[in-house]
Amino acid sequence: MSINTPEELAAMRAAGAIVRQMLEAMKRHVRPGVTTAELDEVGGEVMRRHGARSAPALVYQFPGVNCISLNEEAVHGIPGARVVEEGDLLKLDVTIEKDGFMADAAETVAVGVISPEKQRLLDCAQRAFAKAMLVARAGFRVSEIGRVIEREVRRSGFSVLRELGGHGIGRTIHEEPRVPNYADPDANEILTEGLVITVEPIIAAGSGRSVMAKDGWTLRTADRKPSAHYEHTLVITKGEPLLLTAA
Fold first, then answer.
1. What's the CA gap between 196 and 3, in Å, rounded?
2. pLDDT string in tens for the chain (247-residue length)
3. What is the separation of C-alpha 210 from the centre of its chain, rounded to a whole number of angstroms?
């Protein structure tokens, strides 16, 4: 969507603030021994307290409040009995609806002490996002975001998962434009002031190819190498974008 009124901006800010509170609450409960279902309930309690709803459940009938993925699981992991262990890379992906508006963010969390490769991967996802913010501005093409992300990821020795990327958001989860994490020449839309999108490097060690797990939801790396995910919902401006889901 494109924000055209102060009321729309206020509503999107409110949705983004709930996403941030949910992420921070879940992060505080991350420890070896906790289950992904327990983390999901922590986020769900914050969500319900603010009168919001899980957007994945609302739009796609996802069987959980949040997408919670571990290690080789890239996105859309179903919360359940799986226990978080020391050394895991845990991905918390939160998307909610509040008063008809949606916001989306994700973070990758280190559980205790992680391997050097996993730490480099986590850092790379955040670094690629930060560099993308230099071109996530009015007048640039969408493809520039992907070009910057992929260049940083490849320079760091990792791969983007080409099947996954950012998207427009606002009235529903996935709106136009598609925001690839690579230099896709078909992503030639020009970014305009007020446009709301997500930018989300989803990257992996190894080949970067993904496969669907047996549960029909979780996408994991084909070679079972670890993955990382970092995402914000943002509003395009002439200068630095407005991050609606940041602290």
1. 7
2. 999 999 999 999 999 999 999 999 999 999 999 999 999 999 999 999 999 999 999 999 999 999 999 999 999 999 999 999 999 999 999 999 999 999 999 999 999 999 999 999 999 999 999 999 999 999 999 999 999 999 999 999 999 999 999 999 999 999 999 999 999 999 999 999 999 999 999 999 999 999 999 999 999 999 999 999 999 999 999 999 999 999 8
3. 17
Residue 53: inside a domain? yes
Sign of the alpha-carbon dihedral angle for 193, 152, 108, 184 = positive
For residue 169, the enclosing domain spans 6-243
Structure tokens given for 142:
């969408």
Of 202, 44, 223, the closest CA to residue 124 belongs to: 202
The amino acid sitting at 108 is: T
Q: What is the pTM of this model?
A: 0.96
Return d(Cα 179, Cα 183) in angstroms, integer.
10
Greatest CA separation for the chain: 48
Q: Would you say residue 77 lies in a domain? A: yes
Does residue 35 sit within a domain? yes
